[in-house]
Amino acid sequence: MPDFPLHFYEYNVWANQQIFNRLKELPKEVYRQDIQSVFPSIAHVLSHIYLSDLGWIEVFSGKSMNDALALAEQLKEQTEAKEMEEMEALFLELSERYTLCLQQNEQIDKPLQIQNPSAGIMQTTVSELVPHVVNHGTYHRGNITAMLRQAGYASAPTDYGLYLYLKKTEMA
């Protein structure tokens, strides 16, 4: 399926929005509540997801992995301090960049050479890395689900299977 990277990324956008929608239903303090987990708060998890996604789109756009990591480090404190509504807006802006990139067929299969600081040089393409971006987001949305449950709240369903079902029923 030639459009798979774009379709899979659209799932990622939907799943992130499911989390934001659920957080908006909860008391405002839940977003920054200290929780004994992998991250100290849901705000920190969302910042991490955002900065990772930002780093990858920078790499897809031609920046080096080192530059992308430096940008993430530079923006970390500032991003962690953002309110939930600001983070949601950043996620939406970033999704527009991804969508434009993934709609350009010559861009998604263009060879990329990535100098990964911990793994060496890798030859790949944007289309091969989109599942990594989505999988990373899925993993950390799982962290958020666990944190919400720890705080006494249910999360939001973000399964890919549910997304496919909803997309298919919308088309019917």
Q: Mind explaining what this structure looks like?
A:
- The two termini are about 20 Å apart.
- A two-stranded antiparallel sheet has the order 1-2.
- It has helices at about 5-25, 40-60, 65-80, 85-105, 105-110, 125-150, 160-170; strands at about 110-115, 120-125.
- About 70% of the residues lie in helices and about 5% in strands.
- Helix 1 runs antiparallel to helix 4 and helix 1 packs parallel to helix 6.
- The chain has about 170 residues and is mostly helical.
- The chain has one domain: Four Helix Bundle (Hemerythrin (Met), subunit A), CATH 1.20.120.
- Keywords: Metal-binding.
**Terminal-residue CA separation:** 21 Å
How many E-type strands? Answer: 2
CATH level-4 homologous superfamily: dinb family like domain
Q: How many discrete domains?
A: 1
Q: Can you identify the CATH class? A: Mainly Alpha
Helix/sheet category: mainly alpha
Report the β-strand fraction as a percent range. 5-15%
What is the H/E string?
HHHHHEEHH
| Main pleated-sheet profile | 2 strands, antiparallel
Low-confidence stretches: none
Major beta sheet, strand line-up: 1-2
Radius of gyration: 16 Å
The number of helical runs is 7
Which geometry do the CA atoms define?
globular
Keywords: Metal-binding
Family: Belongs to the DinB family.
InterPro entries: DinB, DinB/YfiT-like
Protein name: Damage-inducible protein DinB
